[in-house]
Design goal:
- Helices cover 45% and strands 19% of the residues.
- The chain is of the alpha/beta class and 165 residues long.
- The protein has one domain: Maf protein (Alpha-Beta Complex), CATH 3.90.950.20.
- Helix 1 packs parallel to helix 6 (142-164).
- The chain is globular, with a radius of gyration of 14 Å.
């Protein structure tokens, strides 16, 4: 079981939706450290719709594993919609998946700035044609922020798939 009953339910729902549309998912996670991938792989049969998960916590990992340009990270910061966009697209370019989600943020308790406070999380979702991004601000401690971010990323995946059809 993952850290959240809701996240478990969202992972089961993701499996149904992805399987129904014959889609494979790749994830690229930074501040959530693989929470989404863990919840997904808790679901029996997830190998039929989950292609791979990248945990790219460092800036170097974002660049080497996903191809996020170091200049993009320098110019916008690792916690930015621009980097989330590049992470989502990089997950697709480095996998056989048809859809991806990406998460990068400040989970705290330290590391926040006035421009990028603790709880700020940027998301990317891609389907090889369209890439969507979004920024959310979550409240709570580190575990709560990470859990909320993972749940939000899953909900955004459903939106991407719904808009694709």
């Amino acid at each position: 079981m993952s850290v959240s009953r809701l996240l478990d339910q969202l992972a089961i729902q993701a499996g149904s939706v992805l399987a129904e549309h014959s889609l494979m998912l790749a994830t690229a996670e930074s501040c959530t450290g693989g929470l989404v991938a863990a919840a997904i792989t808790d679901v029996a049969g997830s190998s039929g719709w989950f292609e791979r998960g990248f945990v790219t916590y460092s800036n170097e990992a974002k660049s080497t594993m996903l191809g996020v340009p170091a200049k993009l990270i320098r110019d916008h910061g690792a916690v930015s919609e621009e980097v989330a966009h590049a992470m989502a697209e990089g997950a697709l370019l480095n996998s056989r998946a048809q859809v991806s989600l990406a998460i990068t943020g400040v989970a705290g308790p330290g590391g926040g700035t006035p421009e990028k406070p603790v709880g700020m999380v940027c998301f990317g979702w891609s389907n090889r044609v369209t890439t969507l991004t979004q920024t959310q601000r979550f409240k709570g401690d580190r575990a709560q922020i990470r859990r909320q971010a993972a749940e939000h990323a899953m909900r955004g995946l459903f939106e991407l798939i719904r808009n694709e059809q």
